[in-house]
Amino acid sequence: MNLLQEDSHCRTIIHIDMDCFYAQVEMIKNPQLVNVPFGVYQKNIVVTSNYIAREYGIKKCMLISDAQKLCSNLVLVKGEDLHDYRQLSYKVTTHLQSYSRLVERLGLDENFVDVTQLVSEKLNSEDTVLGHIFGDNLEYCECGCKKRLTIGSRIAQDIRDSINKEFKLTCCAGVAHNKLMAKLVGATHKPNQQTIIFPNNAMDLVSSLNELSSIPGIGKSICECLGSIGIKSIEDMQNSTPDKLKTLFPPDKAKYLYNLSYGVDEAPVKATGKPQVIGLEDACRPMTVEREIKDKIEQLLKRLMILLNEDGRVPRTIKLVVRKFDKSSKMSHRETKQCNVNQSIFSGVNGKMLPEASEKRLVKVIMDLFIRIVDIKKPYHITLLGLSFTKFLERATGKHSIAAFLKKDLEVQAITSIENMKDLSQSTGMDLSNSSTDLNTDGSESELEPSPKKKKLSTFIARRYLNTDCPSPSKLNVAELRINCEKISDDSFHCPPNADIEVFRELPKDMQRELWQNYVRERDREERLQVKKPRLNTLLNYFVKN
């Protein structure tokens, strides 16, 4: 079965992989680390190291004690705070989005970039391959993929050069017709190099892999499942059939895994937006008392708020992760609980830390989640805590945001409502000083405690008795919203209520007229769309009506 005929060659995908990313960030922060062997560690693990240290045999996720045996002069840099890594990672992703809107993040140090559109715009450019070429290249497809991928290699070189110039970072790149091939071929020449593969060599690259787990998308658990039906190598997978895989996986999954063994991957590059989860975790020595738990949660929350402020959105849900160690079984297991959080806690926080009162409220919410996970009346040993925010809403900001416009428009309506009530008071002799809307000396609207129902009832009865209807702000006609204004014409215009009057006065007359006319059109449109709300069937309305 020749699956290569089903593999589309029309795309050009570039996989960007930063070289020892954490180590590069630390070298930017401290240039003295450039020429010495050093590793970035978390707890007792060396998570990455620079290439000088790797010459001693130091590898990722190696124990510190083992690393120091290989390199006695190894410099260790603590890397448990991911803030700086995240910051630079998102800057790189944003930079890549200037080449294509289709940029998909993989962790902090990898990105897929679909440059198909950009390639189509450069088909008349030079077609010399830049970088390494995987395979013999004796046969080429006639669909034009050789030309497209060659141009892709030049774009990849431009991307790598611009990243180095902008951020002082080096990276590797793989250029191919699908995501799987781009990721695999990019790893064949490292560091700070790039490699291109043409579709006719895809099978050779996959077959050169030592294990099934070397194929991205096939992890340890899938390998164990495949092993149960006798598939233990890539060759076993290729000699199998999708129907055999369907005994373990759903049909789509079975076909996807089978195609991967032939280098076929039709998965699209999915544009990465803002993260759906913002969180962090911290492993620690066993904690056994509530005071320790609360202190750790307060520390995590402060760090998490820094990430939230940088993101700029407001979360609706908070989640707590707890890892408990069972001394009897010598095993650990994780549990999570989450709950909705009142968004008012984050009001006014934009760019700032939580006020003390809000922080206490949030800590109490988190501690309540902890008590739901752990029975604090019994002995416990907590070895990890994690906090994360999810389900975000965009924060409306700015003077001319929708929220600001509505607030300003409401102030205009409130002033008009007060004027109408004053007129009613003068014509009837009634005292309407107990109005639910009041004005401060600066003219802004303030919130007052609602009057008792008895007073509301008497006011409604008085209005009904006088057969006088005092219009509410929401029912005002357009003409009633125009304060001290004549009938609008092309020669009559005023400062819109959603604009700064001082700035408005400095504008040329034609721009003033245009702003006013735009405001009038929008206002009239909103009025036409306004739907009259039905009156509530409350006891108060019942007695007033009768």
Q: Secondary-structure map with pairings?
A:
Blueprint lengths: L12 E6 L2 H9 L8 E5 L2 E5 L1 H4 L7 E2 H7 L4 E4 L4 H14 L6 E4 L3 E5 L1 H6 L10 E3 L10 H23 L3 E6 L2 H8 L7 E4 L4 H6 L12 H8 L6 H6 L2 H4 L5 H10 L16 E11 L2 H22 L1 E14 L4 E10 L15 H18 L8 E13 L7 H27 L9 E2 L5 E2 L6 H14 L11 H4 L19 H6 L2 H21 L9 H7 L1
Parallel strand pairs: 2-5, 8-10, 9-10
Antiparallel strand pairs: 1-7, 1-9, 2-3, 3-4, 6-7, 11-14, 12-13, 12-14, 15-16
InterPro entries: DNA/RNA_pol_sf, DNA_pol_Y-fam_lit_finger_sf, DNA_pol_Y-fam_little_finger, IMS_HHH_1, Rev_trsase/Diguanyl_cyclase, UmuC
Pfam families: IMS (PF00817), IMS_C (PF11799), IMS_HHH_1 (PF21999)
Family: Belongs to the DNA polymerase type-Y family.
How would you characterize the overall build of this protein?
With 546 residues, this protein is an alpha+beta fold. The protein is 41% helix and 18% strand. It contains 20 helices and 16 strands. It has helices at 21-29, 51-54, 64-70, 83-96, 116-121, 145-167, 179-186, 202-207, 220-227, 234-239, 242-245, 251-260, 290-311, 356-373, 402-428, 453-466, 478-481, 501-506, 509-529, 539-545, and strands at 13-18, 38-42, 45-49, 62-63, 75-78, 103-106, 110-114, 132-134, 171-176, 194-197, 277-287, 313-326, 331-340, 382-394, 438-439, 445-446. It has a 6-stranded mixed β-sheet. α13 packs across α14 (356-373). The protein is globular and about 75 Å long. The N and C termini lie far apart (83 Å). Mean pLDDT is 80; it is low at 1-5 and 409-490. Residues 13-219 form the UmuC domain. Residues 426-454 are annotated as: Disordered.
